[in-house]
Amino acid sequence: MALSPQNWDNLAKFIRAGINGVDAGREYDKDVILVETGYQNRPGRYFKELPGPYPETPEGQKQLLEDLNAIVMSVSNGRGKGIYWWEPGNTGARGFFGADGDT
Q1: Would residue 97 count as lying in a domain?
Q2: Structural domain harbouring 50
Q3: 8-29 burial, b for 16+ CB within 10 Å, e for fewer?
Q4: Is the pTM of this model over 0.70?
């Protein structure tokens, strides 16, 4: 499952609906990993007209990751396995590094 919608409204509902709608853990006995997700650690181009659900700060980025991880890890039968962040080494606004290279 990948997540990179431009409209982040109802983010948790969107992900839960996708995970629970398929219930890969119970119905298919398959692992679930959320891949290719990311969020800004500083203001960027995505939320110029509408604000995102989290602040565009390192703290907001961390909160999104914690919330997504909690949803994925709630997949039944322990089949939620985790998240792959899109380009964590990127020094752009979606990476885990600031413009100065600090994490």
Answers
A1: no
A2: 11-85
A3: beebeeebeeebeeeebbeeee
A4: yes
